[in-house]
Amino acid sequence: MTRVAGPDGGAADGRDTRSRLLSAAEELFADRGSDAVSLREIGRAAGARNVIAAQYWFTDRDGLVQALLDRHAPEVERHRHRLLDEFGAGPHADAVVGGPGADGAVHELAAALVEPLAAKLDQGAAGAGYLRTVADLLTRPVPSMAPLALDQPGGSIGRWRALLEPVLEPDAVELHRRFLTVRFVAVEMAQRARAGRDDHRLFVSQLVDAAAGLLGSRVSARTRELRAQRRGPSS
Fold it and tell me: Which of 11, 74, 105, 126 could form an S-S bond across to 95 if both were Cys, CB 3.0 to 4.6 Å?
């Protein structure tokens, strides 16, 4: 429901306050991480007259973090869907694990994961705050899946996962290789965003290569053995 007025004034002023709160959160999160900044600090940094402005607009930290993700998601989603469309129309679309074109398919899909996030590296504090927040959420002891939006029909990560499955070993799929790769990429992106570099082309190309290597690496006999032991005897 749209709020008609906020603690800092009328509806228009309130919308501006909400935007300023998100921008302040992006800057603070980029510098210190999303778990180290209080809502009151965000309100002060945004110049809000009311100390509870962030609570008013977002209810709590989770609400603010979700709003920040939602601010960036449409751009990332459009970019990734475009790359996935190109993959689907390309020569590797029907590749299967171990078959012709499988390596190419994995590399293309690795690029579809990396490149939409890499675009945020050129967006200053806003992009850096988003990337740091994504990494923070995915590296919690119990990871938050909020950045992946897997519960939303038609989401790009859900589509990416489905396109990858035929070109990955079944054991790699069951061992959550796709999530491991997403988390690895998110952490590397967040670190890069803090480095203050201007030219990201080599970094991005190498990260695509690394993500493809992680996705496509074979599951070793030792890993299979240990996994079998953990699962126990068949019933």
Answer: 105
Give the whole-angstrom CA distance, residue 221 versus residue 235: 23
Annotated domain spans of the chain: 11-58, 70-231
pLDDT digit string, tens, across residues 93-111? 999 999 999 999 999 999 9
In DSSP terms, 6 is beta-bridged to: 9
Q: Cα separations (Å) of 126 from 23, 123, 129?
A: 7, 6, 5
Mean pLDDT across the chain: 92
Contact 220, 186 (CB under 8 A): no
DSSP state of 181: H
Report H helices in the chain: 11-32, 39-46, 53-58, 61-88, 102-118, 124-138, 156-164, 170-174, 177-195, 201-216, 221-231
Measured from the Cβ of residue 74, the count of other Cβ atoms closer than 10 Å reads: 9
pLDDT band at 8 (very low <50, low <70, confident <90, very high): low
pTM: 0.91
Question: What pLDDT score was predicted for residue 195?
Answer: 86
Nearest alpha carbon to residue 74 among 103, 116, 134, 32:
116
Give the residue-averaged pLDDT of 216-222: 96
Q: How far apart are CA 21 and CA 213, in angstroms?
A: 39
What mean pLDDT is predicted for residues 23-47?
Answer: 95
Cα dist. 18→47, 100, 116, 216 in Å? 11, 51, 25, 43
Position 141: which residue type? Answer: P
